[in-house]
């Protein structure tokens, strides 16, 4: 063969599919490098939050085993005592007592704050006043969903979750058996083949078994986030599936706006602020509470059951089950004389709200009891195993003075089986997850237009010239 007949390496490289296995591997590496700290953090805090009922029951045990020697005070007097314990506060909700010897919980709002007041049902003594934001599991919730940074933290967590989805999908693509000899290394790790094979198999096999559960947790947590939650709400407005008030808040600012509206303030930016404000504290008549409690208690709604005053003067009282297993929730509309005017069970809600509610309940570990919690713990531990094994693999193969990303200059002999399908999936994810789509464009632009032109950065990252 003459020299002229030899293929030009540059032309061969240019004709090589851009989405080969090596390209997928690089994006898997980049996504993992960014996500690993967040994966570990979200796994730890999420695993703790799964046991919210048990932890809160333990903390509240002193207030659920009171010594009561006489008749209870009426519900209205209990509510007044609770509101009086928070100067300038208004009644947000009266919680039906959990047991005959349990303290009454009164939820009191003031501005953007919300307090839980524990009232002795006989003596009306104030046993405890705690801000909702200072309760242990609420702190865990905010650490998990927003890093205690409000909407900025929610933005960061949503970005990490979006790239974690890319990490999982590319990982499954790389895992897909091509030259497998049996199920070893595919469904279970191979032992006795050396440390490198063990860590590689542990990473791949753990990723396989946890992928479905991890994707479910990542997707079911999106409605809470500030950016995607607003995006989702806008889509519902466009498609005509929006409801007057959804059963979850989007971001810290949405939660604070909702509180402010409940407490009679002007909740700027909340489209429902105009009709959600409570009447001022002095105008609220607590007398109907006794008749309302007598009506609601026999219905045996899933606890906790909250009875709330009208959102505006002359309006109706409401009651609801605020159970974490959201398919058990029920909303009631009541007149001041205790008559049940309307009941809306979970099955009567819009199918979008039911879908999100089921996802949220499973995400929090309360859809099907202890097994749901066990699956959550399994997912968290598996994700931590993935993170640790990936770091070990990276450090073992990382060359000196370089990041250690899979090199892009070597031609892959195994092109992607369906590059168009995989590219379509990436585009669809970019549309479904706007933060991911925007960040993907930025990363590609910076890599091609900036980093490849800087020799030191290019060599450290392993990018082609």
TrEMBL record:
InterPro entries: PepSY-ass_TM. The chain crosses the membrane at residues 27-51, 155-176, 202-224, 377-395, 420-446. This is Putative iron-regulated membrane protein. The lineage of its organism: Bacteria, Pseudomonadati, Pseudomonadota, Alphaproteobacteria, Rhodospirillales. It comes from the Bacteria. The keyword rRNA-binding does not apply. Keywords: Membrane, Transmembrane, Transmembrane helix.
């Amino acid at each position: 063969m003459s020299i002229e007949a030899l293929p030009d390496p540059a032309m061969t490289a240019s004709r090589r599919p851009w989405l080969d296995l090596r390209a997928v591997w690089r994006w898997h590496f980049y996504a993992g490098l960014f996500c690993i700290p967040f994966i570990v953090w979200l796994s730890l805090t999420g695993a703790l939050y799964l046991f919210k009922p048990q932890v809160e029951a333990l903390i509240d045990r002193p207030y659920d085993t009171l010594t009561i020697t006489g008749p209870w005070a009426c519900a209205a007097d209990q509510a007044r005592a609770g509101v009086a314990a928070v100067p300038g506060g208004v009644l947000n909700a009266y919680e039906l007592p959990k047991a005959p010897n349990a303290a009454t919980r009164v939820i009191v709002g003031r501005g953007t704050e919300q307090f839980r007041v524990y009232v002795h049902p006989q003596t009306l003594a104030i046993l405890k006043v705690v801000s909702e934001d200072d309760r242990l599991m609420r702190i865990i919730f905010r650490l998990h969903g927003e890093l205690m940074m409000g909407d900025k933290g929610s933005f960061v967590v949503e970005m990490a979750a979006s790239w974690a989805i890319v990490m999982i999908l590319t990982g499954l693509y790389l895992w897909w058996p091509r030259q497998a000899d049996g199920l070893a290394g595919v469904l279970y790790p191979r032992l006795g083949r050396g440390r490198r094979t063990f860590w590689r198999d542990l990473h791949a096999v753990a990723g396989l078994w946890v992928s479905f559960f991890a994707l479910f947790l990542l997707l079911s947590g999106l409605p809470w986030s500030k950016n995607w939650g607003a995006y989702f709400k806008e889509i519902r407005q466009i498609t005509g599936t929006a409801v007057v008030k959804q059963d979850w808040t989007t971001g810290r600012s949405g939660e604070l706006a909702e509180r402010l509206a409940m407490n009679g303030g002007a909740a700027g930016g909340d489209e429902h602020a105009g009709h959600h404000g409570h009447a001022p504290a002095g105008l609220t008549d607590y007398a109907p509470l006794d008749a309302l409690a007598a009506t609601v208690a026999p219905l045996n709604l899933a606890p906790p059951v909250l009875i709330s005053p009208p959102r505006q003067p002359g309006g109706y009282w409401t009651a609801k089950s605020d159970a974490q297993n959201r398919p058990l929730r029920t909303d009631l509309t009541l007149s001041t004389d205790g008559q049940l005017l309307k009941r809306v069970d979970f099955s009567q809600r819009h199918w979008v709200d039911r879908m999100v509610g089921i996802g949220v309940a499973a995400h929090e570990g309360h859809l099907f009891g202890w097994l749901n919690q066990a699956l959550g713990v399994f997912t968290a531990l598996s994700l931590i195993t993935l993170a640790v094994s990936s770091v070990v693999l990276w450090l073992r193969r990382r060359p000196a003075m370089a990041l250690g990303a899979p090199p892009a200059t070597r031609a892959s002999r195994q092109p992607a089986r369906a590059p168009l399908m995989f590219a379509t999936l990436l585009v669809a994810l970019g549309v479904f997850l706007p933060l991911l789509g925007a960040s993907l464009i930025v990363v590609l632009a910076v890599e091609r237009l900036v980093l490849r032109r800087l020799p030191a950065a290019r060599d450290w990252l392993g990018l082609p010239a």
